[in-house]
């Protein structure tokens, strides 16, 4: 599965919760895609904080090859959505990837917090 986001700002937050400032590559890039069909909205009814449950749901969805793209709520901001792409779906070959563009995280986002 390819984990994407509906907005570049949300994608930044998703990266920042998983990587520390010293783990961000200096040559970070982003891209966007064009899909030939709208993403299906996830029917997950569990707790987004339950990583094992969300992982099982995602695995089941990917294995079913039921849709190319799935809209899932962000665990960080549940009213916003990420998009998961299924590379084994037959329509994946039709996904149009736009050119990658350089991206630099604003240094204010990387400041150490005071405990």
The largest sheet is:
4 strands, mixed
Span of the ends, CA to CA: 36 Å
Mean pLDDT: 89
- Which structural class is indicated by helix and strand composition? alpha+beta
- Strand/helix succession: EHEEEHEEEE
| Topology, number of strands | 8
What shape does the CA trace take?
globular
Share of residues in helices:
10-25%
pLDDT below 50 for ≥5 consecutive residues: which ranges? none
Strand content range: 15-25%
Q: Give the count of helical stretches.
A: 2
Description:
- With 115 residues, this protein is α+β, with helices and mostly antiparallel strands.
- Helix content is 20%, strand content 21%.
- It contains 2 helices and 8 strands; from the N terminus they run βαβββαββββ.
- The protein has helices at residues 8-16, 51-64; strands spanning 2-5, 29-30, 33-34, 40-41, 69-73, 81-85, 96-97, 101-102.
- The strands form 3 sheets. A 4-stranded mixed sheet has the order 1-6-5-4.
- The radius of gyration is 15 Å and the shape is globular.
